[in-house]
């Protein structure tokens, strides 16, 4: 027998035993990875307001995250020659948050614009990423690998990878930025 199970937004076909010989310990072992870790947050995103004045993911939080990125001394070097704008959608329980970011200007990203999903899609950004709120935070806190997120269809990403790959030397910039976000937000 095969059951359809949903992890995040991805339906997965999974074999299910129809007999009752499976012990409670075996069931616990199977579902342990899906259960919260000891010491995990009581509430999802409950610790996302530590230093940043806004909680994840709000317009103020996203604006501050861009300010943190622009403050890095390597940002102008990484942005040099970048071509294309960005579109990001965070699927929140209260409704999606769509963010339009223009291409870097003078080595810095412009302030984000908050638009509707329809407006974002109509603008056809060169780079686009969309995921559920919990998956975005998992990417930020490092518990979800970006490649795994794409393969598992938890993150939809579109765009020219050539520019991304050519900037792998600035990987440290991304790591510092994410660390600051984790510390502050």
UniProtKB/TrEMBL annotation:
Gene3D superfamilies in the cross-refs: SCP2 sterol-binding domain
Domain SCP2: 68-161
Domain of life: Bacteria
Pfam family for this entry, one: SCP2
The protein's name: SCP2 domain-containing protein
Lineage, highest ranks first: Bacteria, Pseudomonadati, Myxococcota, Myxococcia, Myxococcales
């Amino acid at each position: 027998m095969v059951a359809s199970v949903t992890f995040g937004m991805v339906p997965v076909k999974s074999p299910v035993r129809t007999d009752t010989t499976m012990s409670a310990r075996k069931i616990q072992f199977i579902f342990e990875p899906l259960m919260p870790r000891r010491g995990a947050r009581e509430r999802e995103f409950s610790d996302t307001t530590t230093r940043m004045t806004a909680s994840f993911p709000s317009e103020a939080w996203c604006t501050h995250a861009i300010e943190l990125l622009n403050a890095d001394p390597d940002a102008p070097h990484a942005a040099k020659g970048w071509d294309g704008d960005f579109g990001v959608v965070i699927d929140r329980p209260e409704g999606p948050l769509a963010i339009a970011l223009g291409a870097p200007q003078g080595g810095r990203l412009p302030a984000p614009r908050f638009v509707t999903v329809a407006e974002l899609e109509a603008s056809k950004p060169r780079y686009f990423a969309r995921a559920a709120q919990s998956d975005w935070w998992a990417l930020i806190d490092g518990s979800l690998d970006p490649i795994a997120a794409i393969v598992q269809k938890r993150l939809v990403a579109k765009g020219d990878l050539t520019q991304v790959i050519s900037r792998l030397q600035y990987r440290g910039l991304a790591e510092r930025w994410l660390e600051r976000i984790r510390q502050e937000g």
